[in-house]
Amino acid sequence: MLLQHRAFLALLSQYALHGYSSEEELTILIISDLYYHLHGELEGRQITPGPFRELLYFLLEFKVFEHNPLEQLQKTFPTTNGISLFDVPHIRAELGVDLWNDSDWKTCKEVAEKMLDIMHRANLMKCQVDAKLCALRSFITFLSVYTGTSSYKKFDLPDEGISVTTTQSAVRCACKSLQSTINSLTPEVDKNEALFPPMSGQVELLLTVTRILFNHSRQSKSSRDLYPVIVLLMKTSSTSTSFLFNLMPSSPALKQPVKSLLVLLLSLFEFIYSKDDMKHGSEDGNMFDELSLLSMSLLPVLCKLAESREYSDLAVASMDVILKGFLPSNAWVPILQKHFHLQSILQKCQNGALLCTQVILNFLLTMGQTKEGAKILQSANIFAFIKVLLSQMSLDVSCLRNSLSTQIKDLNIWGLGLAIVSSLNHSMDDDISRNSVVNSTVSFLSGQFPLMSSYLSEQSVYTHQSKKRALLQKPQTSLSALSLTENILALLCILAKYHFPRDTGMKEVDSELREIIIHLLAFISRGIARTGDSPNTNSPFICPPSVKEEMVLNEEPALIRSKYGWFRFAASSALSTASVSGPPNAALSLVIRHNSPGDSHSMKQTRFTEMLAVQIYRIAFLIMKFLCSQAKEAVKRAEELEFLDLAHFPELPMPDILHGLQDQVVSIVTEVLEASESTTLDEETERVGQLLLMTLETSLYMELCVSQSCGIRPVLGRFEDFSKGIKAMLHASEKHSSFKPLLRSLSQIITLLYPGLVQSNNLI
Fold it and tell me: DSSP character for 393?
């Protein structure tokens, strides 16, 4: 085969030009020259590019003396299989080297012995590598079991196990070792194959010790001591991923280490994103900037990996976190436009060529929450994509009542699709192409409206079931289900704004929908345990944490810490019980539970319970916004007709429902502002305060509309109660200038609803 190689034939032609006539003589001469070239290569003198270099690569690839890798038994511990690279005794016997002293090959025996010695040393090196890999895998397995399923106290070791200092030192050592291996790799994949197995073990070790480090950090309030280690981890993992990505097409053996590196990167991004002090409280202001630059340099590689079925979920999930917390839109938009083939990703998603559709949709939702990202989605015809994707699913009313995993998955995808549409409308609200987005939204929702209405109807059934039925069924809800309810209401607000479904001949459905929404509002309004009630009153609502992130949040201390309204009520609602069962998609399910008088744990407020409360108030605000738009349209119609036709006036909530919601808002805002010693609130508390004040304002406008349109007389004593509460709230808000614009707007509707209240009490 060597003599027939094209490079060998080329050398024959070249040597013939030098006057050698005999082909046998030419062949011997070329082989002799090749030998000396190979000898020089072994001594460190590289063969220059040309025919002899081609023959070298041919011989390396030929592997005539090596064991066939397919014949090697693939066992957990490679050193036990007894297979080496070269069977030196067999080769020696086949060549008969020991008999060469008595033949014409005597002069070549030295070369043969040197070859066999090199083969023997190669076997020793492989044995050493296999032994190290075996030990490394055993150590990784031990660490995983020790830190994952065993208790530190059980081992009775000092420092209750592996100390933070030791863990950080292990991370640095693992990073240094992996980086050294990466630096030793060359663009020629064949030369690297022996390094791939130990490198894969190094990546697994780094991932394992990093997880231990993160577990330590979750038990600590501050993560500042981790800054240098986090930067080192990010540098090592990002540079390793980028380098191996370029080698991967030529070597399938790199798939597993690249996948492990992606898991490590995703863990890093999620950890940093969850730590506010790492993003905003660093003493070294350049630390987060450095992490942002590293993530930006990695983004093009992640864009390429996103197109692969094997890596798409990890790559896209990492990109999602990068867009959320590491880079501004003006930094990532140009990169995505150049490297992220969105149309190809959407096509593969539709065809089922990518593993996790939900991960892709979450990423699209993140993109849609910025104007620049929304424009990219619009140009990719995102509405058509979502419509086709949802058409492939079995979405009907039955899936709202069934807890089968396949139907829950379809329902989650449907919810994400609605969330993307909602985010596009919000992001493009002030853009010149807003009308195009609205038209596409109305067209899309015309096919989704029946299911949206049915979904809300199911929740209305749950919130108005009898106590006996609630005790038997014990349904529960989740944050994701509440988020879906919010997105449906946000889209209904868009439909109401653009006169849909009134203009499409669906007046009966419109009326039924308003009744459903008012029922939900009534549930939110009456859910409060009123002042003076026992803190352990029966909870008609269960929403325990259902995913890992929510469970972590349920262990973190509360930020707002209000004792009123749904902030108080959600604390007992979030208690998980093993007996709870039912469809997790029920978005405001009612169940009566009894707590013993001494059950103080039922009032444990956490970050999760506050998120639950805020989510419910977001729903309340959207309900008020929807009903106000309906009332506004009805009043406008009455002005055109010059009379109020109550027979065709939309269903609106009774004043007592609105009063319950108003009392909650006033109590919460007053308490939070009075508890604040500073003139500035933290960003999240301020956002919640603004949401509650806007909810209060819309409820007052709705009360004014109901009282004037329907002629309902004021509730006895309401003026005094409201006056007392609003006066305390406005007094507490005096030192918080950020609320002044909202309070001015609020004073206008208070003046209309309660004439003389503002002026007589000198409130504003």
Answer: S
Using only C-alpha atoms, what is the Rg of the chain?
35
Single-letter residue type at 430: D
Burial group, residue 394, by CB count within 10 angstroms (0-12, 13-18, 19+): exposed
**CB half-sphere exposure, 13, CA atoms < 13 A:** 8
Among 511, 576, 514, residue whose Cα is nearest residue 542 = 576
- In residues, how long is the chain? 764
Given a contact cutoff of 8 angstroms between Cβ atoms, the answer to whether 109 and 100 are in contact is yes
| Predicted confidence (pLDDT) at residue 20 exceeds the cutoff of 50 | yes
Tell me the pLDDT band of 77, cut-offs 50, 70 and 90. very low
In this structure, which amino acid lies at residue 324? Answer: K
Alpha-carbon span 84 to 73, nearest angstrom:
11
Q: 145, 211 in Cβ contact below 8 A?
A: no
CB 317 within 8 A of CB 266: yes
Burial level of 502, CB count in 10 A (0-12/13-18/19+)?
A: middle
Hunting for tokens 């993992």 — which residue is that?
237
Q: Is residue 348 part of a domain?
A: no
The boundaries of the domain holding residue 713 are 464-761
pLDDT tens, position by position, 239-272: 999 988 888 776 777 888 999 999 999 999 998 8
Residue 486 backbone class (left: φ over 0; alpha: ψ -120 to 50; beta: rest):
alpha
Judgement on whether residues 571 and 645 belong to the same structural domain of the protein: yes
Query: Could you say which of 152, 175, 209 is where a domain stops?
Result: 152
The predicted model scores a pTM of: 0.78
